[in-house]
Design brief:
124 residues, mainly beta, 7-stranded mixed β-sheet, 4-stranded antiparallel β-sheet
Length: 124
């Protein structure tokens, strides 16, 4: 599975942005798909995930602002980000896991495939 993340950019606080993660190689319908982010000098952090049964999980600081969705026909997962804040500034990565326990969703080591990062900068 190859993952290609895109959609990052420079936006102002309060703006919205949608990131895309296009998968190729095979369908990721039965994978757990997640988004992580990494700010300079910080560890890669869990943002959210969507499971094979379409259950969604989010890190507390993005709940109510970020939404993960998937388009199976396009083999693509999206991260819609609303009400962006300067602290959301980071490189965003998508990841796929063939098998992962729900209580381990936030651990980068649980994911089998990674896309390259796409930079999101929130600044006035």
């Amino acid at each position: 599975v190859q993952l290609q993340a895109s959609g990052g950019g420079l936006v102002q606080p309060g703006d919205s942005l949608r990131l895309s993660c296009a998968a190729s190689g095979r369908s990721v319908r039965n994978h757990a798909m997640a988004w992580f982010r990494q700010a300079p000098g910080k560890e890669r952090a869990f943002v959210g995930a969507i499971l094979w049964n379409d259950e969604k999980y989010y890190e507390d600081s993005v709940k109510g602002r970020f939404t993960i969705s998937r388009d199976d026909a396009k083999n693509t997962v999206y991260l819609r980000m609303d009400s962006l804040k300067p602290e959301d500034t980071a490189s965003y990565y998508c990841a796929a896991a063939e098998h992962v326990w729900i209580n381990l969703l936030s651990r980068p080591s649980q994911y089998d495939y990674w896309g390259q990062g796409t930079q999101v900068t929130v600044s006035s």
